[in-house]
Amino acid sequence: MSFVEYGDTIKDGDTAIVFLGHESMFPVKVQQGAVTQTKYGVIRHSSDLIGKRYGSKVTCSKGGWVFILHPTPELWTMNLPHRTQILYSTDISIITMMLELKPGSIVCESGTGSGSLSHALIRTVAPTGHLYTVEFHQQRAEKAREEFREHGVEHLVTVTNQDVCKSGFGVSSVADAVFLDIPSPWEAIGHAKSALKAEGNCSY
């Protein structure tokens, strides 16, 4: 399972979305022998999920049913654990368009936060591009690395824990675009310029 490559079959270790309705869904890490409780009853991962196709209708122990969906950046934005205030899909689509991102683009982001925008940027630049994302808060940076690894996109992203206003992005003259989501973006303009290629785009 990868957030940037669709897989037909649910596998042990996948992150899947349990869909009860448009106003009720949540992510679950699929694990052999595990169970997930819903208002319709228990879902047994070994028998109800692993080996089934994404999009399957799964009957829970009380007789109610749910759908199991393949994760996407949009679904993750709706269901992720909030470590910070996040950007939502409408704003993300505008940012992606204004930065003129496409497969193969190199993009720098600060800060990583809850990873909502990061997942969308990674999907946009895949399979040959790369995201360099900087997070000031150490625990948030470590959690972002863990999620990117679990979501099968760690080869497309580099997470750095530092103050971008003081230390920059750790790269020079490689980025097609830079996005600054920090309290004082003007303090990082010099580092953004250093990270950008001559013809790159910057937004904040």
List the SSEs and their pairings.
Blueprint: E1 15-21, E2 24-29, E3 35-38, E4 41-44, H1 45-49, E5 57-59, E6 65-69, H2 73-79, H3 89-98, E7 106-110, H4 116-125, E8 130-135, H5 138-150, E9 157-161, H6 164-167, E10 175-180, H7 189-195, E11 196-203
Parallel strand pairs: 7-8, 7-10, 8-9, 10-11
Antiparallel strand pairs: 1-2, 1-6, 3-4, 5-6
Helix pairs in contact: 2-4
Estimate nothing, just give the exact number of structural domains: 2
Task: Please work out how many helical segments DSSP would assign.
Answer: 7
CATH class value of the largest domain: Alpha Beta
CATH architecture of the largest domain: 3-Layer(aba) Sandwich
Using only C-alpha atoms, the radius of gyration works out to 18 Å
What's the CATH topology name of the largest domain? Rossmann fold
Major sheet description: 5 strands, parallel
Query: Beta fraction of the residues?
Result: 25-35%
Major beta sheet, strand line-up:
9-8-7-10-11
* Mean pLDDT over the residues: 96
Number of strands: 11
GO molecular function, one term: tRNA (adenine(58)-N1)-methyltransferase activity
Organism: Mesitornis unicolor
Domain tRNA (adenine(58)-N(1))-methyltransferase catalytic subunit TRM61 C-terminal: 64-201
Enzyme class: transferase
Explain what this protein looks like in three dimensions.
With about 200 residues, the protein is α/β, with parallel strands linked by helices. It has 2 domains: about 10-70, Roll (Vcp-like ATPase, Chain A, domain 2); about 75-200, Rossmann fold (3-Layer(aba) Sandwich), CATH 3.40.50.150. Helix content is about 25%, strand content about 30%. It contains 7 helices and 11 strands. It has helices at about 45-50, 75-80, 90-100, 115-125, 140-150, 165, 190-195; strands spanning about 15-20, 25-30, 35-40, 40-45, 55-60, 65-70, 105-110, 130-135, 155-160, 175-180, 195-204. The strands form 3 sheets. Strands 9-8-7-10-11 form a 5-stranded parallel β-sheet. A 4-stranded antiparallel β-sheet has the order 2-1-6-5, covered by helices on one side. A two-stranded antiparallel ribbon has the order 3-4. Strand 10, helix 7 (about 190-195) and strand 11 form a beta-alpha-beta unit. It is elongated and about 60 Å long. The two termini are about 30 Å apart. GO terms for molecular function: tRNA (adenine(58)-N1)-methyltransferase activity. Pfam families: GCD14 (PF08704). Keywords: Methyltransferase, Nucleus, S-adenosyl-L-methionine, Transferase, tRNA processing.
